[in-house]
Amino acid sequence: xxxxxxxxxxxxxxxxxxxxxxxxxxxxxxxxxxxxxxxxxxxxxxxxxxxxxxxxxxxxxxxxxxxxxxxxxxxxxxxxxxxxxxxxxxxxxxxxxxxxxxxxxxxxxxxxxxxxxxxxxxxxxxxxxxxxxxxxxxxxxxxxxxxxxxxxxxxxxxxxxxxxxxxxxxxxxxxxxxxxxxxxxxxxxxxxxxxxxxxxxxxxxxxxxxxxxxxxxxxxxxxxxxxxxxxxxxxxxxxxxxxxxxxxxxxxxxxxxxxxxxxxxxxxxxxxxxxxxxxxxxxxxxx
Amino acid sequence: xxxxxxxxxxxxxxxxxxxxxxxxxxxxxxxxxxxxxxxxxxxxxxxxxxxxxxxxxxxxxxxxxxxxxxxxxxxxxxxxxxxxxxxxxxxxxxxxxxxxxxxxxxxxxxxxxxxxxxxxxxxxxxxxxxxxxxxxxxxxxxxxxxxxxxxxxxxxxxxxxxxxxxxxxxxxxxxxxxxxxxxxxxxxxxxxxxxxxxxxxxxxxxxxxxxxxxxxxxxxxxxxxxxxxxxxxxxxxxxxxxxxxxxxxxxxxxxxxxxxxxxxxxxxxxxxxxxxxxxxxxxxxxxxxxxxxxxxxxxxxxxxxxxxxxxxxxxxxxxxxxxxxxxxxxxxxxxxxxxxxxx
Lengths: 287, 343
Description:
Chain B: The chain crosses the membrane at residues 7-24, 30-49, 56-76, 82-103, 110-127, 160-179, 209-229, 249-271, 283-306. Chain B: It is a multi-pass membrane protein. Chain B: Keywords: Cell membrane, Membrane, Transmembrane, Transmembrane helix. Chain B: This is ABC transporter permease. Chain B: It is found in: Cell membrane. Chain A has helices at residues 2-32, 39-55, 61-84, 92-114, 138-160, 162-172, 174-179, 184-206, 217-231, 236-256, 262-276, and strands at residues 128-131, 134-137. By secondary structure, chain A is an all-alpha fold. A two-stranded antiparallel ribbon of chain A has the order 1-2. In chain A, a hairpin with a 2-residue loop joins strand 1 and strand 2. Chain A is globular and about 60 Å long. Chain A starts with a helix and ends in an 11-residue tail after the last helix. The mean pLDDT of chain A is 86. Chain B is an all-alpha fold. Chain B has one domain (29-274): ABC transporter involved in vitamin B12 uptake, BtuC. Chain B contains 16 helices and 2 strands. Chain B has helices spanning 2-5, 7-23, 27-52, 60-78, 82-104, 109-129, 131-134, 157-180, 182-192, 194-199, 204-230, 240-253, 259-274, 282-296, 300-316, 333-342; strands spanning 140-141, 232-233. Chain B has a two-stranded antiparallel sheet with strand order 1-2. In chain B, helix 3 (27-52) crosses helix 9, helix 5 packs antiparallel against helix 11 (204-230) and helix 8 (157-180) packs across helix 9 (182-192). The longest helix of chain B has 27 residues, at 204-230.
């Protein structure tokens, strides 16, 4: 029972982090049709920004997380302006190559500043709590609460505010949105900013139970792509459900099959699902 | 196109390749060039599926590793002669490509790329974790050099250089035959518009899978050569970064041209060489270069040259009939339209 509960907890932690990363990726894809391969590098940049603000500048954990979100949101806006905006009429292949160039640049940048070593981000929440006879590390509970809290906030933002409505409108119909006077450039920048901030928060939440290093985004971004294919490219609820599916598959797979192969599980799952359903699990008519 | 890719151009390139060992200052230059040839062979293969058929494969380095490990495992663990293992390396990659192709090529555009990205990771992780077969992170050491054929041995850097050059030349010649044939025209038709190609009666799946198999066959052969040349293998060679490298080679030379990927793959190792003082920070320079190229020179060296020539010809002979599109497989539909308005 205890062990089973641990796996549920792990699944929710991983799922929460993956969902946050996948949400940013799916927003950018749904609205701008850019498969942003550099999103994993945004995640990595968020972890380093948080780590730097905490360790070198003495910020507390939450302030460092907010700072990281701002920094990566700015990186996202710059990426949109300098890289993806000039390419908006190019074939899809060019978006991917440009995103790869951006990714290589950000990774090399992190390595140039902080070196190739692994870093550990401290957390003030290293305690282990005991609830009804079951123990759980506080940081994991925090990740779950923060990740799902943030998802609720994002949902409310998209559904309840005018700004959110313009973003949704552009995702649904670009020409129509332009006709009613929505500034496509503003929405594109905002989407990249939100996407970057989500990745940074996910990284700052997860970094204390993982490590910070230049290539830390690789596996995460690949899994995020798996998730948004599972959930339907561009679908917000799809990204959350997909994130949980992969999180649980990994956590239970590592426990019941083999921890060595836990990273393969997500990819194998995708290969199987796409073989049976090429359009993804929950896609309905979304390109 | 005629100047660059005609008989004269290819003969000059081949002659340069043949005399290079006499011009090279030392064995180190030979090693750099041989390595470039091996990656050129894989890049030329990648260009068939990405440049000519329009499906961006991100698992190419994985297929190269499959070919290399085929040679490594067979020669070291099973004492199979190098040449037998080498013949199997391309074949095995192509068979694997068949199965991955029939699943993944039903997916369109970005979906295919992401699927192959996952396949690339699976290949890397399997090579790293399946220790009983691949020796895991330790890698495979002590791969024998290719056995002598008659009086020709393959021990010295110069002999190995000519061996690699030979396979690159054969690979280029075969690729030339493929893209200039009806099959090549079919691939280009699929790239330009899958719907249109299908309406012309082209069997999409069959041709896409065929292009994919041919493409990864090149990767497998290149991997086999790599195993025989470097004689040491580690799981790192399956890393997706190597596919990114090859993509960069293609882009710099010109995606969807025969000569471009070859030129890109031959030039870049020397650029890297002269930027060696940057060490691991080379991507600080390469990353922005890649972005700038995609934005400002998306057709690469060869593609840009071809466009320039077309415009010049159009200016000189405005009355002449426009060239048929098939004579210029470089230009994307978008650029063709743009070029037309200039003419």
